[in-house]
Task: inverse folding
């Protein structure tokens, strides 16, 4: 086994290599694949956006509903005041009517007409107030229900975020550990070999080393020729797949 390390060739052409370097390169690939996977996991974790969106929607509906409720309540107060004043006016007219002070039949008939007109207005107002009271009660129920829903969604988001943060911490903890191991490992790998590895990783979807399993390249799933396979088994040269160009490695045991 020579210490000569020139790695300019690709595609099945072999280059002398130190066996340990090849083992380290395979370990590096395994580390990098785990790092890639964890980074993917971290990216795919929902940071609570969907729960926050539905919470915001419920809050917006609550604001609108409270506003509508306030409008109904204000209208109700106004109608009640109106009713109050009509009742007062009616009372006063009735006092005049039955006081005996007014004797002119025409005047009496006019007063009677006014009292009756006020009575009709009063009936209309009372009807309207009843409808409004009904509506207001409905709104009060809906607002209370929505308030409970908002509170429930807030709790759900809080719980989710707690879980999310702990998962992120867990993933980042593992990533930190793997990255430190990676630093340690690459310090032991020949720089030129490492350069080739990084070059391939960048161009081969993160997979520079293809693990051979069942006489097939683990990178492109193409069956490897017997000559290539025996070279891979020897571990004395850097062998790359003729099909995908990845560094071939056979796991022992
Ligand atoms: Zn291949």
Result:
């Amino acid at each position: 086994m020579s210490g000569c390390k020139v790695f300019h060739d690709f595609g099945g052409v072999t280059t002398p290599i130190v066996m340990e370097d090849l083992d380290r390169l395979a370990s590096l690939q395994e580390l990098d694949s785990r790092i890639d996977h964890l980074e993917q996991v971290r990216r795919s974790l929902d940071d609570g956006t969907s729960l926050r969106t539905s919470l915001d929607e419920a809050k917006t509906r609550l604001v609108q509903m409270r506003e509508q409720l306030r409008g109904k309540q204000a209208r109700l107060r106004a109608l009640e005041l109106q009713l109050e004043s009509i009742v007062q006016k009616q009372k006063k007219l009735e006092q005049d009517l039955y006081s005996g002070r007014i004797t002119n039949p025409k005047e009496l008939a006019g007063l009677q007409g006014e009292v009756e007109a006020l009575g009709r207005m009063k009936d209309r107002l009372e009807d309207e107030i009843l409808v409004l009271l009904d509506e207001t009660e409905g709104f009060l129920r809906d607002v209370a229900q929505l308030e409970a829903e908002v509170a429930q969604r807030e709790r759900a988001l809080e719980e989710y975020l707690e879980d999310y943060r702990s998962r992120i911490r867990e993933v980042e903890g593992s990533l930190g550990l793997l990255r430190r191991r990676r630093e340690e490992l690459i310090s032991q790998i020949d720089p030129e070999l490492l350069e080739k590895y990084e070059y391939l990783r960048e161009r081969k979807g993160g997979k520079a080393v293809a693990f051979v399993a069942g006489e097939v390249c683990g990178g492109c799933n193409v069956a490897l020729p017997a000559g290539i396979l025996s070279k891979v088994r020897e571990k004395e040269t850097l062998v790359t797949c003729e099909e995908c160009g990845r560094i071939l490695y056979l796991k022992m045991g």
